[in-house]
Design goal:
The complex is a heterodimer of chains A (358) and B (427). Chain A is globular, with a radius of gyration of 21 Å. Chain A has helices at 13-16, 23-38, 40-43, 46-72, 80-97, 103-122, 130-150, 182-205, 207-217, 219-224, 229-256, 261-264, 267-280, 285-309, 314-335, 339-353, and strands at residues 163-164, 169-170, 173-174, 258-259. By secondary structure, chain A is mainly α. Chain B has helices at residues 2-17, 37-58, 77-88, 100-113, 143-157, 175-178, 181-191, 208-217, 229-240, 257-260, 282-292, 307-330, 337-345, 351-356, 402-420; strands at 24-30, 66-72, 117-118, 136-137, 166-172, 194-200, 221-225, 248-250, 271-274, 348-349, 366-367, 378-385, 390-393, 398-399. Chain B has two domains: 23-141 and 279-376 and 411-420, Response regulator (Rossmann fold, 3-Layer(aba) Sandwich); 143-277 and 379-406, Rossmann fold (3-Layer(aba) Sandwich), CATH 3.40.50. In chain B, strands 5, 6, 7, 8, 9, 12, 13 and 14 form an eight-stranded mixed beta sheet that branches. Chain B has a two-stranded parallel sheet with strand order 1-2. The chains are: A mainly alpha (358), B alpha/beta (427). The interface between A and B is large, with 40 and 49 residues. Chain A: This is Amino acid/amide ABC transporter membrane protein 2 (HAAT family). Chain A: It is found in: Cell membrane.
Chain lengths: 358, 427
């Protein structure tokens, strides 16, 4: 009944190769965009922005970034936290060095700097694979965090080593700093998410994405049919780091406003984003959103239900939250090893046949 | 959805209750989970129990009931922001996050929202300059005072001369641990000791290489800026390399019972700073009678009187006194966050007042003013007696070297003012 091609005739190559070929799916996508841009900004308050939507959107960008590298190109990375730190410290240095330049340009530039750093740390991937590459990226994680702690130039010689985002405006509206409106924060992150997800979706459908997937599926075979592994792997590292860098820049400038590298971008962050990608589904843009939603929103929801709704002690709720989230991760991975994205695909298949499955 | 339902319920309850006085809301951003929980639990217990005592024994503060909203941060800045956003709409009067990282997050936010922040002996040291930081307070003492108190104590031990001595700082590699470095460096050039600092990364369970370095360099004194599990590990490692415990001095966040007890007898003689006195204060009897025995305590009551419980209670006591001062200034029991700030700025703690509160000599005498949000900046040195399992105060309140600290505070706070376009007040 839902998700049917019946009656949806394609009369041009353009419409035949569109991202959402099924009409129902396309309208669902437009409806989500309409709600996200047209409804939520008017209803959002500080709590919903700072605790729910902004972290969800930022983690979704990071998860898409890691998914490009791990899900599409098959290169395991544990350096995501370190690359987010590169994005955050780049945007901080740019913000304070060139205060008159638009902050959005700084965020994109920070992504590019991270892309360069990511490509550099991607070089070992040309010789080592799998678990060995994971260890090499782990080195990147620890090295970058150590670097931002050790060299005072990165934090402008502040006494505490903290970096704080000063207020920056666009057309007189504050985009960073404490006076930023909840809806502005949300719209900035949403804008980046929509554009970046669109770019990622189309990159992965095109030549570049196909060469990544060829490398992922069997690198020797890919090399024989003419895929250049150097190019494919380094572009995957660069594009992935670009996304992760933008996520780090927004995480610092828009979401938290002040960070400390060891605490905000430590190894836990790398694992968190890797878990998002695995739970959401490797090699799926939708999966990145689903994984980010699962690991960002579920703890907040559980906390509000247990402490706010049932009035339980906060420590009991915090411990239970860890157990429930952990149990759900195991449950979902046993029920569907390919992640939430695969569950969604199966649900769509079932919906096509519903209510007459035979 | 749950929030809206809750709010409707709360609104309904408020309407049903009629024109009663609104509660005075004191959010408690505590951490009872994670690697820093050992310090977070007793502090939060003390903080909450004192407000419960006010409600049970005195019927509230100036007639208005105190309400504590607890929110678990796990010492994590992201959760801290969530907690702040979740509680600020409830009419929060003051925030005390017990985390330097969360403090740095909150300073711009509370300044924009107009809610005072009290970071007692932690947070951003230069917030002591009230001319720049209108909403932030860090009385009675701050990190730079602590560093200076430690050095002053060592000067006294060495007959006023530290030249040629080697002092090493073992610090938590975060904003918290880095705070004292600049002061210790300034003091090194003044007093002629050799200064060296060694970082320990979060959470601090692995310190073999740091202690190997200490063993090799053989410093005369080790000063530690640690928190959470890092303290216990450091004391155990110091015992393992047979570092003389009496030459090992912790900051006031590294000097609680649970920090030294895991090392057992080996921790005997370890020293730590403290910003408040400990001991069996009369107020604890009231807490046992009115809070613990009726089963209203935030914890199980076993922490009453411990170092961090006392400090948490002292934090609540200062908040209550500031609220009373605010009620006096504005002539209403129903104060707002802005009135609370006025009360904090006019706060005066005298020995007579502390005695009247059942806590004689718990802290130094100090008064807060528009310019000075940092209090008197004094601290004591205490030593662990492993035989009796208790901390013994070695000194009375030691003043810090304001000649060195004041210019540093002005320099750092004016840099902040410049970055954020703040015009200094109080002139």
């Amino acid at each position: 009944m839902f998700y049917r091609e019946a009656g949806d005739f394609k009369t041009s190559y353009l419409s035949d190769s569109q991202t959402f070929p099924i009409r129902f799916d396309r309208f669902r996508y437009y409806a989500v965009l309409a709600v996200a841009f047209g409804v939520i900004p008017f209803l959002i308050n500080d709590y919903w922005a700072s605790a729910v939507f902004v972290p969800f959107l930022i983690y979704a960008i990071a998860a898409i970034g890691l998914n490009i590298l791990t899900g599409y190109c098959g290169q395991v990375s544990l350096g995501t936290g370190g690359f987010m730190a590169v994005g955050a410290y780049s945007v901080y240095k740019l913000m304070t060095a060139f205060p008159d330049v638009n902050i959005l340009i700084h965020v994109v530039l920070a992504g590019m700097i991270t892309a360069a750093v990511g490509a550099l740390f991607g070089l070992p991937s040309l010789r080592i694979k799998g678990f060995y590459l994971a260890v090499a990226t782990l080195a990147a994680q620890f090295f970058l965090v150590w670097l931002f702690n050790k060299v005072p130039w990165f934090y402008n010689y502040s006494a505490s080593g903290q970096i704080s985002a000063p207020e920056r405006t666009l057309f007189g509206v504050a985009l960073t700093g404490p006076n930023t409106d909840a809806s502005v924060k949300y719209l900035v992150c949403l804008g980046f998410v929509v554009v970046l997800a669109w770019v990622a979706r189309n990159l992965t459908r095109g030549t570049v994405g196909r060469s990544w997937m060829a490398i992922r599926d069997m690198d020797i075979a890919a090399e024989i049919i003419g895929v250049n592994p150097l190019r494919a792997k380094l572009t995957a590292f660069a594009v992935s780091s670009f996304f992760v860098g933008i996520a780090g820049a927004l995480f610092f400038a828009v979401y938290l406003g002040a960070v400390e590298v060891g605490e905000a971008f430590g190894i836990q962050k790398s694992f968190l984003i890797l878990f998002m990608v695995i739970i959401g589904g490797l090699g799926s843009i939708f999966g990145s959103f689903a994984g980010a939603a699962f690991l960002v929103l579920l703890p907040v929801l559980l906390k509000n239900v247990l402490v706010g709704g049932l009035g339980w002690p906060t420590d009991l709720a915090a411990h239970l939250e860890l157990m429930v989230v952990g149990a759900l991760i195991i449950f979902f991975l046993i029920a569907e090893p390919h992640g939430l994205a695969q569950l969604w695909r199966i649900a769509k298949e079932k919906l096509r046949l519903w209510p007459f499955p035979h | 959805m749950t929030k809206t339902t809750l709010m409707t319920l709360a609104l309904g309850a408020a309407l049903a209750a009629g024109p009663a006085l609104a509660d005075l809301v004191f959010p408690d951003l505590s951490y009872r989970t994670g690697p820093y929980a050992a310090g977070g639990i007793p502090f939060s217990d003390g903080y909450q129990d004192y407000f419960t005592l006010m409600n049970e024994r005195d019927g509230g503060i100036g007639g208005a009931k105190a309400r504590v909203i607890e929110c678990e941060t796990a010492y994590n800045t992201e959760k801290g922001v969530e907690c702040y956003e979740a509680t600020k709409g409830e009419g929060a009067l003051i925030y005390q996050p017990l985390s330097t990282g969360i403090t740095y997050q909150l300073i711009p936010k509370i300044s924009a929202d107009g809610i005072p922040l009290h970071t007692m002996g932690y947070g951003r040291t230069s917030a002591a300059n009230g001319k720049v930081f209108e909403w932030v307070f860090n009385y009675p003492a701050n990190y730079w005072n602590a560093a200076s108190v430690a050095i002053n104590y060592l000067l006294e031990e060495n007959g006023g001369n530290l030249s040629g001595k080697k002092i090493t700082l073992l610090y938590h590699n975060s904003a918290y641990g880095k705070e004292p470095i600049r002061t210790l460096e300034e003091l090194a050039s003044k007093h002629g000791y050799t200064f060296n600092s060694i970082p320990v990364d979060h959470p601090g369970q692995e310190q073999k290489s740091q202690w190997l370095q200490i063993r090799r360099e053989r410093p005369d004194y080790v000063i530690m800026w640690g928190w959470g599990v890092m303290n216990q590990v450091a004391i155990q490692e110091a015992a393992n390399i047979r570092f003389p415990m009496e030459n090992f001095i912790g900051a006031w966040w590294s000097g609680a019972e649970h920090d030294v007890s895991p090392a057992g007898q080996a921790a005997h003689g370890y020293k730590a700073l403290n910003m408040n006195r400990i001991g069996d204060l009369p107020v604890f009897d009231d807490i046992r009678q009115y809070v613990v025995e009726p089963g209203l305590a935030a914890g199980d009551g076993s922490n009453v009187g411990s170092v961090l419980y006392t400090r948490g209670m002292y934090a609540a006591m200062l908040a209550v006194e500031a609220a009373r001062t605010a009620q006096g200034i504005h002539g209403t029991p129903d104060i707002t966050a802005a009135m609370m700030r006025d009360g904090m700025e006019a706060l005066e703690m005298t020995n007579a007042r502390m005695e009247a509160l059942g806590a004689p000599g718990i802290g130094p005498e100090f008064s807060v003013s528009c310019e000075n949000h940092g209090g008197s900046g004094m601290g004591i040195v205490q030593q662990w007696d492993a035989n009796n399992g208790e901390w013994v105060a070695l000194t009375d309140y030691i003043p810090s070297d304001n000649e060195v600290i004041d210019p540093l505070i002005v320099q750092d706070s004016m840099a902040f003012a410049g970055e954020n376009n703040i015009t200094p007040r109080c002139e």
